[in-house]
Amino acid sequence: MASVTPTPGIHHVTCIAGNPQRNMDFWVKTLGLRLVKRSINQDDPGTYHFFFADAEGTPGTSMTFFPWEDLSQGTVGSGQVSRTAFRVPEGSLDYWEDRLDEYGVEYDERVDRFGESVLPLCDPDGLPIELVEVEVPDDDPTVPWTEFVPAEHAIRGFHSVTLWLANPDATMDLLETMGLEKAATEESPGDTPGDERTRFAAAGPVGSYVDVLPTVKGGRPGHGTVHHVAFQTPTDEDQSAMRSAVQREGLRPTTQIDRHWFRSVYFREHNGVLFELATSEPGYDSDEPLDDLGGRLVLPGDFEDRREQIEAQLPDVTVPRAEAAESVEPAESEADD
Known about the structure:
Number of strands: 16
Protein name: Glyoxalase family protein
Helix content: 10-25%
InterPro entries: Extradiol_RC_dioxygenase, Glyas_Bleomycin-R_OHBP_Dase, Glyas_Fos-R_dOase_dom, VOC_core
Order of helices and strands: EHEEEEHEEEEHEEEEHEEEHHH
CATH superfamily: 2,3-Dihydroxybiphenyl 1,2-Dioxygenase, domain 1
Pfam family, one: Glyoxalase
Distance between the termini: 54 Å
CATH topology: 2,3-Dihydroxybiphenyl 1,2-Dioxygenase, domain 1
Structural class: alpha+beta
Number of helices: 7
CATH architecture: Roll
CATH class: Alpha Beta
Strand content: 25-35%
Low-confidence stretches: 325-337
Shape: globular
Strand order of the largest sheet: 2-3-4-1-13-16-15-14
Organism: Halobaculum gomorrense
């Protein structure tokens, strides 16, 4: 039986959005993430797939979106990733509150969670996200992108995801099988009184935490919800061993699927959350120079042969640039369509 290399943590999180331009404006201009890949949903090539990350698309930093405009608003509930949290350097939340005020983005009061200060907010589609102050070490693997937000305040990859689960025990066992360790438990402020939040920690420096909260609240997919969360299995060997371990848990992972910038295995965990295992290579700079990431529509594999047809189905979008933003009032630039 092959030994399982523990996952270092979250690789990426993929979500469902509505209007693609509004989605891009918020994640690039307001939150200051770099568009590292502009592509298509490989299972639905008439839909964009946007990848927002740090300056180099480091594993553990990419928030990705399918902007399915025709879908209705979703509801966060049991069997979903309910919150996606990002790391920001210690002392940054004052800056972020001022920035969100400037751009007309509402946010909730800060909460203390496991000794860390957390700022909850939502993106324009209602997706719940959080900014968490952390001490970023000098050797941190993330590279801040500074076109819109200065380095001392820039988002530095994922902090955690929170899973809302009806029956958490089996999922918590699975997380331990994947190499995360139970780190702490506390009553969860802001959630149902009496509920306990259990934190699991991976060994890597970015996207290290998965929080589990029990809930039977119903949800449905749609705008403002998470489609899936991907965990790092850096090599093909790591991924194969993890896939076998998942099978031994009674789950049904797919065979490996080539996603062009990484190779993937998918499965639904015991409570229905869609998990992905993703390799580190070949990476987002495998088909574009690092300086030009996100600069063009990339069509992987055989999709390139259908470029004219695919481009005709996609709405035009403009990638925000700092020099262009100087002449635009923030509140106007973020207005809903």
